[in-house]
Amino acid sequence: MSDPDLPGILEFIRSAERLKTTLRSAHTSTGEPESVAEHSWRLSLMALLFRDALPGIDLGRLLSLCVIHDLGEALGGDVPAPEQARLRAEGNETGKANAERRDLVALLQPLPDARRSEILDLWDEYEAASSPEARLAKALDKLETILQHTQGRNPPGFDHTFNLTYGRQYTEDPDVIAALRTLLDGETARRVAENGISSLPDDRI
């Protein structure tokens, strides 16, 4: 890496700092809104901790995917999972992805060409879930979100039932992912019961 590249890299890093103050719909255990950076950090921590149960996975690639998967949100902000589901049901999911990719391209502009292409390729891989590592990154992304929803001090009326179906297509395998999903579904059901909902639709059990 040559010295002339350093100013552009620093400019990019400064811009990416916005993820520290870009908020998600989840809340922390102390009741504060969670930032995208906080979510990405714990997602990466989960990947590191469960690596031994993920044979054949390139950990470096998995961690890279975890770190960059929400980079575009530094410009466009986060779209909460229930809203994503609504867009998907209306056939508008690609609109969100296209907007996030445009924001990512803009964010990456100060970087050298090789770095810019590398990160954009990783984001495309994640979005398409086109590799075992990308599919795992998506699974861990869903699980970290559910975990935060069960752990956080959420506002009144928070919809925990949504999490019982959220991201299920990515969390059925491998075994460690499925086991984590089972544990978190139990925690979600407990939070639903605490909120006074006595029964759940069959497809949410």
Itemize the secondary structure elements and their pairings.
Layout lengths: L5 H11 L6 E5 L5 E3 H14 L9 H10 L4 H4 L4 H9 L3 H15 L5 H16 L3 H20 L23 H20 L11
Antiparallel strand pairs: 1-2
Helix pairs in contact: 2-3, 2-8, 3-8, 6-7, 7-8, 8-9
Description:
With 205 residues, the protein is mostly helical. The protein has one domain (3-204): Hypothetical protein af1432. The protein is built from nine helices and two strands; from the N terminus they run H-E-E-H-H-H-H-H-H-H-H. A two-stranded antiparallel sheet has the order 1-2. Strand 1 (23-27) and strand 2 (33-35) form a beta hairpin. Helix 3 crosses helix 8 (132-151), helix 6 runs antiparallel to helix 7 and helix 8 (132-151) runs parallel beside helix 9 (175-194). The radius of gyration is 18 Å and the shape is globular. Mean pLDDT is 91; it is low at 198-205.
**Strands side by side in the biggest sheet:** 1-2
Distance between the termini: 52 Å
Radius of gyration: 18 Å
Estimate the helix proportion, in percent. 55-70%
Whole-number tally of structural domains: 1
Uncertain stretches: 198-205
